[in-house]
Amino acid sequence: MKTIYLDNNATTAVSPEVLEEMLPYLKELYANPSSAHSFGRNLYYRMERSREIVASLIGAEPEEIIFTGCGTESDNSAIISAINFDEKKRHLITTQVEHPAILNLMKQLERKGYKVTYLPVDRAGRLHMDAFIEALDDETAIASIMYANNETGVIFPIKEVGAICRKRGILFHTDAVQAAGKIPIDVKKLDVDMLSISGHKLHAPKGIGILYVRKCCKFFPYIIGGHQECGNRAGTENLASIIALGKACEIALENIEIEQHNVARLRDILELNLMNKCSDIFINGYDSERLSNTTSISFSNIDSEVLLHRLDKYGIFASAGSACSSGSSEPSHVLRAIGVPEIAIHGSVRFSLSRYTTEEEINKVIEIIPGIIDELRMHRN
Ligand code: PLP
């Protein structure tokens, strides 16, 4: 059976070009880039080339890029660095809809006595600037606001948030794990101090990420040990994955506009047809600025786990919320925060497309879903 993968916000396929580029570094090019001999030194130069390419994806300077082990590490490193920056500042700001990589760290810091403001979002998944401004105080160590939400795809006003933080002298981090490679990002135009990216969301392998740290921003390392990454992140570099990430960023940069146009077209076909063919459905964040690959659909009166199970049998893979919250029957914190009504919150499914999604696949999904929805609702009544 041919499978249809619509869970690209959970992870993406490594692209063939990326795989080809990284393989030699898992075979014959295995030296340690920190070694003094020429074998290692040559690989160090190759690693630095990759850093340049990754930097160019977000308009950064290569020396502003720290390679990390994943998006979660990048997120954690940013927050921990900020609280070490000025230990007297014990207030942190984030949103109710962040990824657990931020939220669970915040909860842990609350237990240690930090005060955390979790900003709400509205019914369209949007963040409101007045609530953000009101939350700021002289004790605020950092604001960490995601660039785009992993479940709804809603894009937050990062430029505006950054400008206010800069004016108030407050550190600003953004989790751009879902945004990078999908929308153009230029850190030179944003007053962002730190920004996280994860390789496996843009067709590089799992287990590689970056943290951008603005040149003038002081950084306190989270992982202590050797001198790698200029002392900012110890541990022998994952060279093959760094090379892969460089290639993935190069491809993303070259194709960002055309790809987003293509996935938006397919996402719109999916949404329009499901809205026409299924009654009582609601698209979360529909009226907001969104990532073009993401749609979060709430079907009233069905159980999303059952729908996903039925789709799975057809070889169609999607998710009920974020991958980290699937498997629990509790609806995701994001859908709760945007106030999806009780009748629909348990029937919410996220479809996330990629450059490899085809129109034929989307048509197949459109053909199958309405029948399943009717059947599930009939059994409920
Ligand atoms: N931040 C967001 C918005 C995400 O969607 C994810 C992964 O789903 C992460 C952080 C964590 O990234 P990683 O899986 O590389 O740790």
Please outline what is shown here:
The protein has 381 residues and is α/β, with parallel strands linked by helices. The protein contains 11 helices and 12 strands. The relative contact order is 0.17.
Secondary structure class reads alpha/beta
Which runs of at least 5 residues are low in confidence (pLDDT < 50)? none
Can you write the helix and strand succession as a string? EHHEHEHEHEHEEEHEEHEHHEH
CATH classification class of the largest domain:
Alpha Beta
Global mean pLDDT:
96
Helix fraction bin: 40-55%
Strand order in space, largest sheet: 2-8-7-6-5-3-4
How many β-strand stretches?
A: 12
C-alpha end-to-end distance = 33 Å
Strand content: 5-15%
What is the CATH architecture descriptor of the largest domain?
A: 3-Layer(aba) Sandwich
Number of domains: 2
CATH T-level topology of the largest domain: Aspartate Aminotransferase, domain 2
- The radius of gyration is 21 Å
Report the sheet with the most strands, covering strand number, pairing sense and barrel closure: 7 strands, mixed
Task: Provide a count of the helices.
Answer: 11
Write the layout of secondary structure elements.
Elements: E1 4-5, H1 16-22, H2 38-57, E2 65-68, H3 71-85, E3 91-95, H4 100-111, E4 115-119, H5 129-135, E5 140-144, H6 158-168, E6 171-175, E7 194-198, E8 209-213, H7 239-277, E9 281-284, E10 294-299, H8 304-313, E11 316-317, H9 333-338, H10 342-345, E12 348-352, H11 359-380
Parallel strand pairs: 1-11, 3-4, 3-5, 5-6, 6-7
Antiparallel strand pairs: 2-8, 7-8, 9-10, 10-12
Helix pairs in contact: 1-7, 2-7, 7-11, 8-11
Bound molecules: pyridoxal-5'-phosphate (PLP).
